[in-house]
Amino acid sequence: MTQAPAKPRPAARQACLHLHILGSGSKGNCSLIEGPGGLIMIDDGFSRRETLSRMHELGLDENQVRALMLTHEHSDHIGGVAVWCRRFDGNLFASAGTAASRKAICDLLFQEFMPGDAFEVAGIRIETFPTSHDVVNPVGFRFSCGEDAIGFATDTGCLPPGALRLLRDARILALESNHDVPMLRTGDYPRALQDRIMSERGHLSNAQAAEAARELVTERTQELVAMHISQENNRPSLAVRSFAEALGATLDNELGSSATLARKAHPDLHIRAAGQNRPISVW
Length: 283
Fold this sequence. Notes:
Layout: E1 18-23, E2 30-35, E3 38-42, H1 48-57, E4 65-69, H2 75-78, H3 81-85, E5 91-95, E6 111-113, E7 118-121, E8 124-130, E9 139-145, E10 148-153, H4 161-167, E11 172-176, H5 181-185, H6 191-198, H7 206-216, E12 223-227, H8 236-247, E13 250-251, E14 258-261, E15 269-273, E16 280-282
Helix pairs in contact: 7-8
């Protein structure tokens, strides 16, 4: 009896957006969205030299950056912005009150928006939503181009309804998975700082992020990236394992550095962790 040929695996949807994470963590944050019209930078907490070094490591051209957008004003997200802007003539975006709250960037000419506003930059539609953090007006983003979409949310103690709505069903989802609660509670941080991190205006834990992923990840989602992982109170493998267990994915190796959810009728879901020191590209 002749065996029927195996059905080809489903093809991924046409991707016109890519995510490049130069670093994600308490020592510096910077990511770039790549689209047909250039690059959009999200935050810049690194020195110019470090930002350029990491961009070049990923094959990115600084002359292609069309805009810089801030999620919020903490120093690990804006530390390199002022120096970067000395040689940058693209558009700057920040939510209302964000730039004015920090002396280092208050003189820069930002285009202000309110969380919930939407606009277009370099052919990419950008939808903003409020997050929950102990700053003036923190935001997350959904980037869309054609049928492709990237959801991006870090530095939030919870995910408000608007965030859940816009993060859901993205092809690439970059979601904070900051701390492991047992590690945080038994670690060296003072109790007041522990409470701040675990509060609704702090950071998402592995468990919170994994629970959210159950709702946010759909058959369209192909890449899930754990973001802003604490070097003191978490491990990349713990974040990956937490996502994998919540979504029924299988670890790719004993280290738990990545995981895959195999799908028969749709492209597979790949789970990985962004790091503080090693830039990565997510296609």
